[in-house]
Amino acid sequence: MRINSHLSCFMILSVLNCASMAVDPTIYNCPDDITTLAELQGQTTAKVEWTEPTAEVNYGNVAVLVFRSHSPGLLPIGESFVTYIFSDPNDDQSTSACEFTVQVTQVDDRSPVVTSCPNDIKATYPYGTEMGTATWEEPTATDDSGVAFIHSRTNYPGDSFYLWTARHEVKYTFSDAAGNLAYCTFYVTFEAVDTQAPVVHDCPELIQVEVALSQNGSFVSWDGPIVEDDSGRFDVKSESKYEKGSYFPIGLTHVVYSFTDPTGLQSECSTDVVVTQVDLLPPSLLNCPEDITVGVATGEDRTAVYWEEPMAEDDSGQATLRLRSHQPGDIFNIGSMANVRYTFTDSSGNDVVCRFEVAVVEDTERPDIIGCPGNIERTVSTDVNGITIEWNGPMALDNSDYVDLLFQSHTPAESKFYKGETKVTYIFADSAGNQDSCTFIVTINIDASLPTTTDETTGAGQTGSNDVILILTLVVTCLSVVIILISVLVLIFVCKIKTPTEDLNSLEKKLAETHHYHIDTSDERSANRKKLDPSQGLPPVPEDTSYMELNVKTRQDEGPYYLAPT
Question: Rounded to 5 degrees, what are φ and ψ at 535?
Fold first, then answer.
């Protein structure tokens, strides 16, 4: 109930009559919400009574009823909103309302109606058995509410009954949602006669097997069928050359089983076995990109990003790009982390997804150059007019995973260098335009004392093949010394040969003067002395190695070493 009142008095020189001013009506006896029940069957309305409200204004004056949504009497099923509006007879702007709801609810007090209740049943059973089986179509029921269900039953169709009772009562109880009950009752009696063929249970209706495209068939097995007969005995005969567990070819194979009891009653069970070649494997991805991070220069808020699009292959011979969330060249905002998806599918609907992320970041870092060569200096003869030089070019890494070689002034083993200094420059840049460079100097000196050569690429002092030959010569020399050391150690244990002290002193002096090794063969049977220059190679080994020994005395060891040449 809602009451609105407005009262104002003004004192000027005399007291005004406030009762004559507009005031919202005062409502009496506004009903509370009302709930009532109605029968479910056929009713769309119900009679509802209530005491109607009244209203007054200005000290007992009757208010005017200007609106009423419903009157006591018939109301529809469900919820109704009832409204009364009263106004001041002197001022129709001053109103009050009375509001309440009326809920009419249907109730179900009628029992369900049973339909198709079976008549009494006469069933047969094989001789010599103690129980008989009866079957019937179960009864049904309807109800005003629209829902009636089986509440209970004494027996199910197919139940077995003891034969020592001549007459068996079967009772079904139905109920609706309101708990009203209805019943169906019938009786089952038995006669001793063999009319029951073998009963087949769990006979498969359809057996489907999928194999790979490379297979021509499959071994197939299944559960069932299960066979029962009153006699307890029956013969099983298959009319198909295929049985469960057999190897079935691609396609459909019809399998039929026949079951016969002793009285000749027969039952059959048939099923279809379908072996289908299908593509069970999804396509295989090719070159799915790794996650991509692209840097942009300060002030830029977006950039286009490119990548090599992935591909896929499938054993069916065809893999199709079904969905692509982005494509190379799309614009990505800075700070975003976009998930890029490529979905490929084959003709059998198998999918494979290539996923990678694209991130755009502000990049202010320059690329990091690795392996920048140091300055290179070479000396050539006067007749060499430019040489080529080998070096390992630098590389660059960047936090954006993208770096490009913008500029290369010279190419190793291809560019020619001439007398004087030449600056070699590499410039690298990342995707944001940050750059860094590698610079080194190649110096070519001219030495008139070097022998001349007609091959400008093989002049003395150049790296190329001369450096390789020098390195190989040093390696061979070192290996030769090692072999000599090993041979002398063997001779020390075998021959126990020693050299006079004066020979060691002489050898030490010559080593100090020439920095060469010497071979000393002076002894009682030989007066020959040979000089060994490692750059000229080792002399041949004589047949009697005891007459040729290499004597070395060092400042670190007072005792001599005896080295047999190899």
Answer: -70, -20
